[in-house]
Structure formats: structure tokens, C-alpha cells
Amino acid sequence: QVHLVESGGGLVQAGGSLRLSCAASGRTFSTYAMGWFRQAPGKEREFVAAIMWRGPVIYYRDSVKGRFTISRDNAKNTVSLQMNSLKPEDTAVYYCAADSRRFGDSVYDYESWGQGTQVTVSS
Length: 123
Known about the structure:
- The protein starts with a strand and ends with a strand.
- The chain contains no helices and eleven strands.
- Strands 2, 4, 5, 6, 9, 10 and 11 form a seven-stranded mixed sheet that branches. Strands 1-3-8-7 form a four-stranded antiparallel sheet, with no helix packed on it.
- 35% of the residues are buried.
- By secondary structure, the chain is mainly beta.
């Protein structure tokens, strides 16, 4: 099991930027992919971005392409999400997730989850 802790959330005006970080500990040697998901009140948790831990593959949901950038630092066991040009519809709790089995864009693909960090974008 991988323990994940998110940080970097906050309140920002539309058009602004935030950088989220996720620190991983525990059985990080088993990690295959790291992902970011988000969940707004009353909605299902949705995929945002994912990165293969030791490979070149990165994937984003369409609505964040060109605005968000996921990156990793394997030596420090961290993954980050740089969010630019934020929109009110980006408002949600953002979760970091880790998977030991595959690279995926479903919540069911991921085994370990952080507690989430709130991102609020005002209009």
C-alpha cells in the first residue's frame, strides 16, 4: 500500500494558477502509474491526468489539455499537477492516486488514494 498526501490547493480567481503536489511513501517500489482525479459536490470522481511512473506515457482529460501539466520526481517520490488558466468548473477536491497494476483513467484502476486537497476557482 502506498500512502499519498496532497498539498497545494487553495482559492484562486479564474485565469489564475495553482500547483498541486503529491508525496508518496510506503511501498512506492510497486507503483506503475500515478494519477490525479477530482470530485465536485454531487458529482462522480473524474479523471484529470495520469503519468506512468517509470515510462514516458502521459494522458489528460480533454477539458484540461493545454492548461494542466502533470510531472513526476521519482527520486523524491512526488508527482505534481501544474494548473494554469483555471476555470470555475475546475473547482473540486483533487485526489492523488497510485496504481501498481496498469496505466488507466478509471477510479477502479487505482489502489491507493490521498485524502484530497480543495481547489476553488472563483469567477
